[in-house]
Amino acid sequence: MITRGFQGRRSQVESKRLPPGQHLTRDFPVLSAEPTPHTPLNAWTFALQAEDGTGIASWSWDEFRALGPSEVTVDIHCVTRWSKFDTDWRGITVDRIFEAAALDDPPSPYVMAFCDGGYTTNLPVEDLLEGKALVVWEYDGEPLAPEHGGPARLLVPHLYFWKSAKWVRGLRFMDDNEPGFWEVNGYHSYGDPWREQRYDGD
Amino acid sequence: MATHGGNSGTTVTRVPRTSAWQPATVVSTREETRRVKTIRFAVSNWPGHLAGQHADVRLTAEDGYRAERSYSIASPPETPALELTVERLDEGEVSPFLTGQLQPGDAIQLRGPIGGHFVWSASERRRPLLLVGGGIGIVPLMCMLQHRRLSGSDVPAALLYSARTRDDVIYHEGLRDLARLDARFTLRVTLTRDSAPGWCGATGRIGLPAVQALLDDLGGEADSFVCGGAGFVEAASALLLEAGQPAHAIRTERFGPTGT
């Protein structure tokens, strides 16, 4: 359906790298549902939990960062329609986290990422492996700012950015793919930007 | 199942399902300020919405090129027409077209409603309501106030609204009418850039004393909704925490140049 008189500005379009319905931004917009939590680093841990909440493994801030960091440069895509190219991050791959916990075989096919402030998001385990996901604490060479999810956030760049949970504190394994915070509130369970899975039912 | 905070589960069940893209015809446009317009659309199959939700807009050029953006819904759920209030961003691609070129009779595409967290529903919310808005962030908050009025809700409500200058105050007349007609609604507008001759409201940024005074008037813990630019929301939600409000009672929505 054509809108009379609309031309648009196409100069910024790099069609191969921009998923449908997205546009490029140079800033780094912030989206969050509640006030920004501020967790002191000496109280911070990252935990892997079984479905019933019992601990599988847990690391302090220093222990976690010593697991062997990786650096990645990726494009990110927010469901509110901005995309940002070539963002630089430093953190620990989820492969390495599982390896450090001696989890050769993940116990369940799904996880719920849980965070300070109570935010959650659900993910298939296979979307976190083979270098596809990290827990990051540096953006563009600087410590990750609290409003962008610091001290540490999940980074799952091949899915819409709400899956890259801010203020992440751990992963809880789940046998069933239960919905997290935005997934309960009308957003898609999986969130693939290339298939435009924005909302429930897309 | 984990939910976010202590009370987010209550808003889940009644959120209307997001519609597919559908045609929306412009019925009328109304200038709110020099940079802000409200556009009224006729949409034939709108699933309904809750106050605070938003809608996606799609514009398509003759050669098939498309641009899509999200805008907060301005009209309360009780009214049949759907209104969006849009601020013109000079460097933007969509907002200059919506505010400058779109005419009654023109058609765009819409889908929605979207978002089930930054919503206020009078039938489910009995606690006092504190709304804190900066600039164009007033839009979903005004929707909540209209919904509160039309639904006959008697919960006490207050709006703390920060705008740059007097000419940038969106819905000024409507807000003053609401405040005049409703003793249980308190309006506080503050201007951050300059005051105008005859301006008797506050000036300067929102501070802790203003927040604290409104909360005291409301009777303690409120359901708070904070909406504006990222810096405004960060500062205002920090003030609410400082004033003793629990984090789970504060909901935020941030607008940025790319989000509007």
Summarize the structure.
With 202 residues, chain A is mostly beta strands. Chain A contains three helices and eleven strands; from the N terminus they run βββαββαββββββα.
Verbal overview:
- The complex is a heterodimer of chains A (202) and B (260).
- Chain A is mainly beta.
- Chain A has helices spanning 61-65, 94-100, 181-184; strands at residues 23-24, 45-49, 55-60, 70-77, 82-93, 110-115, 120-124, 134-139, 142-143, 153-155, 168-174.
- Chain A has one domain (43-195): Sulfite Oxidase, Chain A, domain 2 (Alpha-Beta Complex), CATH 3.90.420.
- Chain A has three helices and eleven strands, in the order E-E-E-H-E-E-H-E-E-E-E-E-E-H.
- In chain A, strand 4 (70-77) and strand 5 form a beta hairpin.
- The model of chain A has no long low-confidence stretch (mean pLDDT 94).
- Chain B has helices at residues 95-100, 138-150, 172-181, 208-218, 230-242, and strands at 22-31, 36-43, 54-60, 66-72, 82-87, 107-114, 129-134, 157-163, 185-191, 202-203, 223-229, 250-255.
- In chain B, the strands form two sheets. Chain B has a six-stranded antiparallel sheet. Chain B has a six-stranded parallel sheet with strand order 10-9-8-7-11-12, sandwiched between helices.
- In chain B, helix 3 (172-181) links the parallel strand 8 and strand 9.
- The longest helix of chain B has 13 residues, at 138-150.
- The relative contact order of chain B is 0.16.
- The chains are: A mainly beta (202), B alpha/beta (260).
- At the A-B interface, helix 3 of A face strand 3, strand 4, strand 6, helix 5 and strand 12 of B.
